[in-house]
Amino acid sequence: MTARVLDTPHGPARAELHCAPEGRAGLLLGHGAGGGIDAADLVVATRAAVDVGVHVALVEQPYRVAGRRAPAPAKQLDAAWLAVAEDLGSTWFADLPLVFGGRSSGARVACRTASVGQAVAVLCLAFPVHPPGKPEKSRMPELDAVEVATLVVQGENDPFGRPETAHHRELVVLSGDHNLKADLDGLGRAVGEWLDRVLRPLG
Questions:
Q1: Could you tell me which SUPFAM superfamilies the record lists for this protein (predicted)?
Q2: The whole model's pTM is what?
């Protein structure tokens, strides 16, 4: 594991790199609004990706690097993410296809930036469809706007809701809630199988 601090328009971000023996792609994973890159589902997804030959960068947003718990506005999160993706895409992940992903808020950032960042696929862990108890405040337009292969892994009792499958979008529902800790083995299998399958045509 190697860590690196990267400049962004909103302060330094941090990337923790986990290398596969022979990298076929680079996966950038972002954390949730109030959590860090040590979340159990991110750790398991990282291991599953490395096992199928994908390098992983766990990306810590500038507000977390600065020690703040309250997340930055969406535009700042997206700008910082794209700066990290551009840097890693020309250094650690040079000449490799990029997959964007993350959990909860990090999944929203991945969706919003996938097109501009030229991601070949998007991995969403516990995508927050709406705030708990407020289905009228839907974030589905962010997910629906993604035009590349997408996997959403959701807990069956997630209070943030559950998206539907759609063109390009697969849904895996596991036991548990928003933290996805109840079936980490299932999460790892789903992520590894999906990455291996969607990246095969690019190999």
A1: alpha/beta-Hydrolases (SSF53474)
A2: 0.97
